[in-house]
Amino acid sequence: MPANILLVEDEPAIQELIAFNLEQAGHHVLRADTAEQGLSLVKNALPDLVLLDWMLPGVSGIDFTRRLRSDERTKTVPIIMLTARSEEPDKIAGLESGADDYITKPFSPRELVARIKAVLRRRAPQMTDDVVDVNGLRLDPTTHRVTAQGRPLDLGPTEFRLLHFFMTHSERVHSRSQLLDHVWGDHVFVEERTVDVHIRRLRSALEPSCHADLIQTVRGAGYRFSVQG
Ligand code: CA
């Protein structure tokens, strides 16, 4: 499950080492030396996960976390904090500020990759390889196959990601801007109308097996994937 990971770390050697290991594990890494830089990257595209050093020059890791948590758009982004052993007592404060997990330096690359996977599984189910099945509609992220009552459906890559996101976040209303963030990874340069185009395509692919009604339009708010009519 390749994820877009924002790495905020001011020490060049550690940044390099972490980025190398994450890329080896198949992730795409965006790097920032400071929290300010990290925030401006987040403004452009919402990452799947933030890996954040505690001790940063300027805005601290804790303040960065608080800022992400207080903004509607970024409040659910999974955050893992990197702390030095000497900062042990601060871990509690880190978790209280809204981080999902923390890792103590020095850590093994293997541990880091495993912790990322665990946090994504918990916080971003669309990032995992688990098969999802709703009312006979079955999506397998590993093989990239979708079947309806056992029959294969032909979906484009965007419709696939859209359906995967919906199936792992059902019964909730998602605005167009939220869908752009989570499915396209870009809410600045893609028009909201694009969402409607792909919703239409997805519905027509689901039409023959009578699954199109799972995708509901919520007037003035966005879209919802729901098994309740
Ligand atoms: Ca540091």
Describe the structure in your own words.
The chain is an alpha/beta fold and 229 residues long. The chain folds into two domains: 4-127, Rossmann fold (3-Layer(aba) Sandwich), CATH 3.40.50; 132-225, Arc Repressor Mutant, subunit A (Orthogonal Bundle), CATH 1.10.10.10. The chain contains eight helices and twelve strands. It has helices at 12-24, 35-44, 61-70, 90-96, 109-123, 157-168, 176-184, 193-206; strands spanning 4-8, 28-32, 49-53, 79-84, 101-105, 132-134, 137-140, 145-148, 151-153, 173-174, 215-218, 222-225. A five-stranded parallel sheet has the order 2-1-3-4-5, sandwiched between helices. A four-stranded antiparallel sheet has the order 6-7-8-9, covered by helices on one side. It has a three-stranded antiparallel sheet with strand order 10-12-11. Strand 4, helix 4 and strand 5 form a beta-alpha-beta unit. Helix 6 (157-168) crosses helix 7 and helix 6 crosses helix 8 (193-206). Bound molecules: calcium ion.
| CATH H-tier superfamily of the largest domain | Response regulator
The radius of gyration is 19 Å
Which parts are unreliable, with pLDDT below 50 for 5 consecutive residues or more? none
Strand order of the largest sheet: 2-1-3-4-5
Strand fraction band? 15-25%
What is the CATH fold-level name of the largest domain?
Rossmann fold
For the record, the CATH class of the largest domain is: Alpha Beta
Structural class: alpha/beta
Indicate the multimeric state. Answer: single chain
**Into how many domains do the coordinates divide?**
2
Topology as a string of helices (H) and strands (E): EHEHEHEHEHEEEEHEHHEE
Count the E strands: 12
Q: Mean pLDDT, rounded to whole units?
A: 90
Classify the helix fraction into a percent range.
Answer: 25-40%
Give the biggest sheet. 5 strands, parallel
Q: State the helix count.
A: 8
Bound molecules: calcium ion
Shape type: elongated
Distance between the termini: 32 Å
Q: If classified by CATH, what would the architecture of the largest domain be?
A: 3-Layer(aba) Sandwich
